[in-house]
Here is the input.
Amino acid sequence: APGTKARCWGYNGSTPGPTIEAIEGDRVRILLTNSLPEPTTIHWHGILLPAGMDGVGGLNQPQIQPGETYVYEFTLRQHGTHMYHPHADEMVQMAMGMMGFFIIHPKRPERQIDRDFCIFPHMFFIRPGTKTPDPSVMLDFNLFTFNGKAFPGTDALVCRLGDRTRIRLANISMT
Here is the structure.
């Protein structure tokens, strides 16, 4: 039904989580308070950073227990389109919707961009009569979303003729 919402996990109450934007050279500090019923982390996919900030639970940081807060702090040494997601029970947590964009703008842009869009496709399997994704289903999905919305509720990419438009895509689903 139109307006029906799934019960997913996410960051700041949404899937995908908020798009983090910063500029190359910035020092960022991100606090993660775990409100999940299990341990979690955040892995900053493709970002050059100190090992202790890489978010791989049990390898280079302790897993963040429910109710605990962990501080990620690092200096951005590159630019580009990146993403974040957990590396603690990641197959379940990503299947439940935990992901987001991390955009690092260049310190000295090579060109002007008029419109900049981020699209995070994701697939879920939600059993009929329920609202919670089933993370045990790996390939037989029944809900395809763009930025957490299914058609026809998806947003249009509105630009003017002649606009220099960038479309950023990220995908951590199984296909």
Q: What stands out?
A: Strands lie at 20-23, 27-33, 43-45, 69-75, 80-85, 100-105, 115-119, 121-124, 143-146, 165-169. The helical segments are 90-95. The first helix runs from residue 90 to 95.
